[in-house]
Amino acid sequence: MSAPDYAFYTDSYRGTQLNREKFQRLVQRASERLAADTLGRSGQALGPAVQEKVQLCLCAMAEVLEQAEAGDDRLTGESLGSWKRSYAAPAGGGADAVGRAERLYLADTGLLYRGVRP
User: Domain residue spans in the chain?
Assistant: First the structure.
């Protein structure tokens, strides 16, 4: 299974948050994370419906990873007397948000199952 390309991100996922360069870098990181979380099953030959869900999931994960990276750069306020600095909380960034994206798209595919099958 190959990672989605930028055309899929903009056309099918309808993403606007990432430019081409960021998308290519972050979707690679998302693919590696998803492969680990699915015990390698996300890279196997999958049916077309599941394959599309995996690609949508990778797009969502790439956006979450970008938000997590940008978290420290979101300065919302600064004062000088009794110096104070405020940052915006990342909008759903971090590992928990990546897991939510995985569950949103892949919960019904069996790819996230970690137990033993009979």
Answer: 6-106
Interatomic CA distance for residues 95 and 102, integer angstroms: 11
Per-residue pLDDT 10s for the chain (118 aa) are 679 999 999 999 999 999 999 999 999 999 999 999 999 999 888 899 999 999 999 999 999 999 888 765 566 777 778 777 776 665 555 668 899 999 999 999 999 998 876 5
Q: Which residues contact 18 (CB under 8 A, 6 or more apart)?
A: 9, 26, 62, 63, 66
User: Side-chain half-sphere of 4: how many Cα atoms within 13 Å?
Assistant: 27
CB burial readout 53-78, b (16+ within 10 A) else e = bbbbbbbbbbbbbbbbeeeeeeeeee
Cβ neighbour number for residue 14 with a 10 Å cutoff = 8
Tokens at residue 57, please?
């999931």
pTM for the full predicted model: 0.79
